[in-house]
Amino acid sequence: MSESENQTGMSDQTTTPDAAPAPVKPDTTPEAAADAKVNWVAEIRGLAIMLLAVLGFHSLIAKPFYIPSESMMPNLLVGDRLVVSKYPYGWSWVSASFHLLPRSDWRIAGKTPAYGDIVIAVPPDRPEDYIKRVIALPGDKIALVDGRVRLNGKYIPRQVIPPVQIPIDANAQCNPLDYPDAQVRLPSGKEVCELEAYRETLPNGATYTVIDHLQQPLDNRPEITVPDGYVFLMGDNRDHSADSRAPAAPIGNGLGGPVPLSSVGGRAEFLTFSLDGTMTWNPLTWWGAFRGGRAWTSLRPAHVETGGKDGSGKQ
After folding, report:
1. Contact 303, 204 (CB under 8 A)
2. For residues 189 and 182, what is the distance between their CA atoms, to the nearest angstrom?
3. How open is the CA angle 234-236-237, to the nearest 5 degrees?
4. Residue 135 · residue 245 · CB < 8 Å
5. How far out from the chain centre does Cα 106 lie?
6. How far is Cα 49 from Cα 115, in angstroms, rounded to an integer?
7. Could you tell me which of 301, 270, 265 has the C-alpha nearest to residue 89?
8. Is there a contact between 313 and 306 (Cβ–Cβ < 8 Å)?
9. Cα atoms in the 13 Å half-sphere on the side-chain side of 299
10. For residues 295 and 308, what is the distance between their CA atoms, to the nearest angstrom?
11. What is the pLDDT along the chain (315 residues), one digit of tens a residue?
12. What is the DSSP-derived secondary structure letter of residue 275?
């Protein structure tokens, strides 16, 4: 064979295409069909485990909370979303999500809240969550005189500050029946609800703003002693809060006096976001419904120096 013939043979040998693989037929046997079916037992088990994990986190660690009322204005507005931690005061029947456990006085790793903490509490007559501020602790003597808090025989410091101006929107409408003559139009054209405000300071130095613009029956309450294992709670919007000053059902919708610590379900920590009430199912309305400047605001009270060396206000 010549060299050219040899090269031609090699060329023919290397360019011959491989044979196409035979198509793979799907396995249609009954056994293969059974393997392809969804294992519903495993799926349901996985969903149940995930649900229990979420409920466990909400019951033991933290849960989201929505503000439905004006009782904590100006510090909390209707439409605010926030995070409540469940562990600072221990756990009790009220810790379980949806209040699935029966009422009881047991507590695990129980601790007492601090003055000024914003807490979640359940009234004695229904399984609802109220959000209020801790004003008096176990053993304290508390009275209300013309709207001022008298704690252990002394009025807590209360300083007049400029009126608060809450922007009016769908979730903060400044109803004239509740807030007479409070609607104000600023030079910029923005409408606000302008209300008398004060800065209160509790014995541990916790300080916060309250609204008190009316004279009403809850402004005066006789002195009581907060029992051991209880706290006295009040809303920051003093004229529009159903709290420890107000009777519970069937007379009213308040907390009916001091609240047992076993009915305190957690501490408010921070805002996540806030909505002004204009959001609809139309996604185009979602971004404009967010209130600016409220996300990630801490809900722990500021503290100032007090007269006591231990921060309690006691000498």
Report:
1. yes
2. 15
3. 110
4. no
5. 24
6. 39
7. 265
8. yes
9. 32
10. 34
11. 444 444 444 344 444 445 556 665 655 565 555 555 778 888 899 999 999 999 999 999 999 999 999 999 999 999 999 999 999 999 999 999 888 899 999 999 999 999 999 999 999 999 999 999 999 999 999 999 999 999 999 999 999 999 999 999 999 999 999 999 999 999 999 999 999 999 999 999 999 999 999 999 999 999 999 999 999 999 999 999 999 999 999 999 999 999 999 999 999 999 999 999 999 999 999 999 999 999 999 999 999 998 643 334 333
12. B
Please choose, from the candidates 24, 129, 18, 39, the residue with its C-alpha nearest in 3D space to the C-alpha of residue 84. 129
Tell me the residue ranges of DSSP E strands in 56-121. Answer: 62-66, 80-85, 91-92, 107-108, 118-121
Count each helix (H run) and each strand (E run) in the chain, helices first. 3, 18
Token digits of residue 221:
């309450």
Largest CA distance in the chain: 124
* Residue 260, strand partner residues: 230
Do 129 and 122 contact (CB within 8 A), yes or no? yes
Question: What's the whole-model pTM score?
Answer: 0.84
> What is the distance, to the nearest Å, from the Cα of residue 202 to the centroid of all Cα atoms in its chain?
23
Q: Write the Ramachandran bin of 34: left for phi over 0, alpha for psi from -120 to 50, otherwise beta.
A: alpha
Residue type, 171: N
Alpha carbons within 13 angstroms on the beta-carbon side of residue 18 total: 3
Residue type, 180: P
CB 184 within 8 A of CB 191: yes
- Report the C-alpha gap between 146 and 65 in whole angstroms: 32
Q: Which residue has the tokens 């030079």?
A: 187
Alpha helix ranges (H) inside the chain: 3-14, 30-36, 40-60
Question: Is residue 241 a contact partner of residue 71, using CB atoms and an 8 Å limit?
Answer: yes
Question: Token pair for residue 234?
Answer: 């009040």
